[in-house]
Design goal:
Elements (H helix, E strand, L loop, with lengths): L2 E5 L6 H12 L3 E3 H9 L3 H8 L1 H15 L6 E3 L9 H9 E7 L2 H8 L6 H4 L3 H18 L2 E4 L4 H20 L1
Parallel strand pairs: 1-3, 1-4, 2-3, 4-5
Helix pairs in contact: 1-9, 2-4, 3-4
The structure holds shikimate-3-phosphate.
Shikimate-3-phosphate binds next to helix 7.
Amino acid sequence: MKHIYLCGFMGCGKSTIGKALSKRLSMPYYDLDQLIEQKAGMPIPEIFAAYGEAHFRALESEVLVESGKSEPAVIATGGGIFTNPQNGKLIQSLGIVVFLNTPFSYCYQRIKGDASRPVAVSKSREELFELYQSRVSRYRAFSHLNVVCRGSIKQSVQDVLKALQAAEQTKRS
Ligand code: S3P
């Protein structure tokens, strides 16, 4: 079993679905945002404020590389992981990549005004929608599986499991 990477826009459910999925699969769970915070020794908003987004993106690429060295795990990425397109090729080589394709309106409800998300906090709904639209093509391009998430977390976990099983069967046949 390889790593399972979850990608998608802020608020699509990567952490919640990732934790539940890791329990179902009895695999460890990691969150790249948390690994970045550990490495920097400060929360994400402070990294952005003190060193800027470019520094955050460099740390993000570093922890992505490092994540590949752990035992097989479910790994949640940050919504901007493909800002550096080189992360796309890399992630595909490290595991199976699942795009949690959650409609923007759902994501927006979860992220609006969230001070822990510096990319979202100061943006209007329109600006965030533009960002969402500009990112979707990369989520699609760099993912092996695309799972539409518009129901409960339980339903989404089941849908991800189904997609993983189907992919496994296709590989075997
Ligand atoms: C970001 C998303 C965040 C985090 C950082 C930047 C982005 O992760 O990596 O605040 O650019 O979309 P979540 O998608 O978990 O909120």
